[in-house]
Amino acid sequence: MKKLLHGLAALGLLAGTASLAVAQETQPAPAAPAAEQPAPAAPAESTAPAAPAAEQPAHTEAPAGSDGEAAHAGGEANHEAEPTHFPIKPPKEEEWTFAGPFGTYDKGQLQRGLKVYKEVCSACHSMNLVSFRTLEHLGYSEAQVKAFAAEYTIPKMNDAGEMVDQPALPADYFPSPFPNSTAAAAANGGAAPPDMSLLAKARGVTRGFPQFVIDIFTGYQESGPDYIHSLLTGYNETPPEGMEIAEGTHYNPYFINGKSLAMAAPLSDGQVTYDDGAPQTVDQYARDISAFLMWTAEPHLEDRKQTGFRVILFLLIFGAMVYLVKRKVWANEAH
Amino acid sequence: MSGGHSTYTPKSGIGRWIDARMPLPRLVYDSFVAYPVPRNLNYAYTFGGILSIMLVVQILTGIVLAMHYASDTRLAFDSVEKIMRDVNSGWLLRYMHANGASFFFIAVYLHIFRGLYYGSYKAPRELLWILGCIIYLLMMATGFMGYVLPWGQMSGWGATVITGFFTAIPLVGDWVQQLLLGGFAVDNPTLNRFFSLHYLLPFMIAGVVILHIWALHVVGQTNPTGIEVKSKTDTLPFTPYATIKDAFGMIVFLAIFAYFIFYMPNYLGHPDNYTQFDSLKTPAHIVPEWYFLPFYAILRAITFNIGPVDSKLGGVLAMFAAIAVLFVVPWLDTSKVRSAVYRPLYKFFFWLFAADCIFLGWLGSKPAEGWYIPAMQVSTLLYFAFFLIVMPVLGLIETPKRLPNSITEAVLEKNKGGSGHPVGAAAEPQTKG
User: Degrees (nearest 5) of the Cα angle B257, B258, B264?
Assistant: First the structure.
């Protein structure tokens, strides 16, 4: 009976976690799955119009169509040079202040990250879900937020019913650098730069077995910021000999959807001026923007973790008390 | 077991007045206080109670979420993010609901495996088992449609793939798919009908749960020995014995649930679902939620045509058969002995089957390529062999261990230290579940 219980417990954990975490297992070349999966699983079948543009990952410019084919046809030629699973290198695991059950954001770091976003990323990337008022979480005063918002202009209707550019208010959201996604795509070689609000949760390189099981116990939840940091600092690597990098794309072994992406290295040392003495290096910029994007993706992270600690503490104490009562109740009954 | 006449005696005047007119308190008393349960139930039997709690959690959080959600393709994704950002404790509600679905399935899988291990489906509990299978089916439909609502990439593409299954059905396939989608592709009509049904189905589940519990209270619970209750010493009243044990089981379950909600809320989800659905961008690899992965592996295991049945239809048939076979389990198992405790061979095959299901789940997350395909095929074969070969044949050839004469005897045998004492006076070994 005990054995069954242990077995069931193990089953539960595995069934619950095992399968899913792996669900995010590394992908084959973007073009491959549609071709390889048996009919029912191939979505392209049922939605004909989706097919043509289908293989274009948001950001990548690995010449999609041919990529999978090439990988298979010339597979035997050089595996090193023509990888089929991405990213080529797993993200580097970094230390984050918001990791762990008591993690909190480093407000100074978030402010630096905001500066990097404003001066670098925002040229191409929108951040539609973040409103200026929430920047108070970063330690800014109401007046500072108001001043910050006023630096942006947003078209609003005036009393005459005309759309006129006006200074943004704290209640407004970060305006997009492009009027719409088509314009964004047109200006960026056919693929619109992804919105950054949720990027830190929308990118996660799968961890593989057995790491994804271990992650449950270590509570690892930082694959998003790790990925962004690795990607931003991964441009200086040179592709292995023999690897072909498509025209207009940039090799990056940490890119999740291919061997190269359309975005050129966005950061360089000294590009953004920090006034708090933090090092003005690509690595530091990458760290700060990653942390900032974790905040934009999960603004209530601190509240969540603090509430969680209280809830779990309560459940443990309550559980221990109920267990003692249970023992007492059953004390005189064989079972 | 509920055959015994009611022992409820209202103590107050109001109690007697109500009891004479509508004996609801009597029903509650008879069902959850005086109701006799086998004294040897272990913690594997607490999942029924845990599942009831999870259903309530899902319905309550879901109702509040629906107050803030907009089922319109232009608004859905952002409305969910509004919940996460601007609604008071919205992040908590949504994470409870999303992880709650996963934990609902964890509990239901453990509940089903407990039933398979202890032979809970055998006569006279066939209907009880079938009602459970219906609940499971409804849960799958609800879970699938709920996953579409946030309108992320996996939402839309998952819906595309799963509704695409139906096109494999000859003659009416396309019509069925269009009925499900409300059009030719996943779009606003799809989202709206899924939202409507996602709100409806949990109440249908609640209805079938009532039937399930009703059937349970007619035939009584099984127990780890698989021997029917024979005398009063075999049982204990539900309250306080089962109540307190269930309560402890629930708290442990909720603590693990809380760990996921607060510390790894996105672990069981897919990162792609934080990108809004775009019908022009197929994700590199479409996977359903983890709790469908074993069936997803079975679907893709059929890569060959069987006579007039092409591989697509074959895969869909295999997948539906994998669920349908559960309904006939009571008639597939030929053994006269219920519990795996006394069936050494069955016990071995049970664990093999359990491992196979987990392996299928893992394969379900893999692309259908390379060695994964033969692995999926072998595992699928094992899955069906367990039901269609092992269950019927084992009952005929297996020599079970000696069965105790009664639950009481089994309990006393186990608590050797207490032998000689009448049940009720036996010392309680504290370490045991």
Answer: 90
CB B400 within 8 A of CB B225: no
A6 — pLDDT class (breaks 50, 70, 90): low
Q: For chain B, which domains are there? A: 30-418 (1.20.810.10)
Mean pLDDT for the stretch of residues B130-145? 98
Q: Which residue segment(s) compose the domain that A253 sits in? A: 2-36+57-126+192-298
Nearest to B369 among A28, A307, A309 (CB): A28
Distances (CA, A) of A243 to A77, A81, A84, A231, B129: 11, 5, 12, 19, 58
The answer to whether B282 faces chain A, any CB pair under 8 Å, is: yes
- Nearest in space to B84 (alpha carbons), one of B63, B71, B73, B98: B98
Minimal CA separation from B198 to chain A, in Å = 22
Distance CA A124, CA A194 (A): 9
- CB proximity list for B142: less than 8 A, separation 6 or greater: B198, B201, B202, B205
Separation CA B401–CA A79 (nearest Å): 56
Structural domains of chain A, count: 1
- Running DSSP on this structure, what letter comes out for residue A238? P
Q: Is residue A25 part of a domain?
A: yes
Rounded CA separation B151/B83 (Å) = 14
Instruction: Report chain B residues whose CB lies below 8 A from the CB of A172.
Output: none
Count Cβ atoms within 10 A of the Cβ of residue B87 and give its class: 0-12 exposed, 13-18 middle, 19 or more buried: middle
Q: Is the residue at A219 inside a domain?
A: yes
Q: Is the pLDDT of residue B296 over 60?
A: yes
pLDDT in tens, B306-358: 988 999 999 999 999 999 999 999 999 999 999 999 999 999 999 999 999 99
Average pLDDT over residues A204-215: 91
Q: What is the pLDDT of residues A123-145, one digit of tens each?
A: 999 999 999 999 999 999 999 99
Average pLDDT over residues A291-308: 98
Q: Which of B102, B318, B356 is nearest to A40 (CA)?
A: B318
Count of alpha carbons within 13 angstroms of residue A154, beta-carbon side: 17
pLDDT of residue A79: 53
CATH number at residue A272: 1.10.760.10
Provide the 3-class DSSP secondary structure of residue B15.
helix
Tell me, what's the pLDDT at B385?
98
Mutate to test the interface with A, among B282, B299, B349 (most CBs of A within 10 A): B282
Residue A242 C-alpha, separation from nearest chain B C-alpha, in angstroms? 25
**B251/A297 touch (CB, cutoff 8 Å), yes or no:** no
Report the gap between the CA of B324 and the closest CA in chain A (Å): 19
Is A8 inside any structural domain? yes
Out of B102, B161, B265, closest to residue A41 by CB = B161
A63 within some domain: yes
Over residues B172-217, the pLDDT tens digits come to 999 999 999 999 999 999 999 999 999 999 999 999 999 999 999 9
Residue-level pLDDT at A43: 40
Question: Can you give the pLDDT at residue A185?
Answer: 92
